[in-house]
Design a protein that fits this description.
The complex is a heterodimer of chains A (about 120) and B (about 90). Chain A is mostly helical and about 120 residues long. Helices cover about 80% and strands about 0% of the residues of chain A. The chains are: A mainly alpha (about 120), B mainly alpha (about 90). At the A-B interface, helix 1, helix 2 and helix 3 of A face helix 1, helix 2 and helix 3 of B.
Chain lengths: ~120, ~90
């Protein structure tokens, strides 16, 4: 029973991880690639960790697996946010089909009315 | 089921690392490569966890923790470098 659960969790987790890699390859610009990578890799790694914890079962390994999972869940959003902010400020081009860029609109509006820059 | 799950997970994770390496080589900008490198770090942590659980060698889990820590610090450092205005 435990073996079956572990096998299923590993299949699901590695499929999600592969989808994340496929998203990083196929998405059109940095920001969409980043969201594919972070969301799917967190879920995929979570499934792999739970499967490994079911399989190993001793306290030392489970503590290590839980600490890996907690650390990943804490740091993935932070690093995604920092990469997004850095690449936006470095004027990395957005995808040509981008619909909404509120900061650019605010900057243009501020320039049109001759007011000090926002943001 | 465990046999098949282990084989499937190892092969799929290795394929995912290869796909991420394609993005790492093709770029086109530095943040793309940083995102690919971050993803490769997470995928390698997953590979090590699956290997440790299927072979029963616990010692490699410490290596997984270290790789997760270093990947995070490297991503933050590269993001700061990009933000200071070196996009290539």
């Amino acid at each position: 029973m435990m073996d079956f659960a572990t096998g299923m969790l590993w299949i699901v987790g590695s499929s999600f991880a592969f989808l994340a890699a496929l998203g990083v390859l196929r998405m059109p610009d940095v920001f969409t690639r980043m969201q594919a990578s972070t969301k799917a890799s967190t879920l995929g790694l979570g499934c792999l960790l739970i499967g490994a914890a079911l399989q190993l079962g001793d306290l030392a390994s489970i503590l290590r697996l839980v600490s890996i999972g907690a650390f990943t869940l804490l740091t993935t959003p932070v690093s995604a946010h920092v990469i997004a902010r850095g690449s936006y400020r470095a004027d990395i081009p957005l995808w040509h089909g981008t619909v909404l860029d509120e900061r650019r609109e605010a900057l243009e509006k501020a320039q049109a009315t001759e007011q000090p820059e926002m943001g | 089921m465990l046999e098949f799950g282990t084989q499937f997970a190892l092969v799929t994770l290795a394929a995912a690392v290869l796909v991420a390496v394609v993005r790492l080589v093709r770029g086109p900008t530095l943040p793309d490569r940083v995102v690919a490198m971050d993803l490769i770090g997470i995928l390698v942590v997953g590979l090590i966890v699956v290997l440790a659980a299927s072979t029963g060698v616990h010692a490699t889990l410490d290596a997984a923790i270290v790789i997760a820590l270093i990947a995070f610090v490297a991503t933050i450092a590269y993001a700061t470098y990009v933000e200071k205005g070196h996009p290539e």
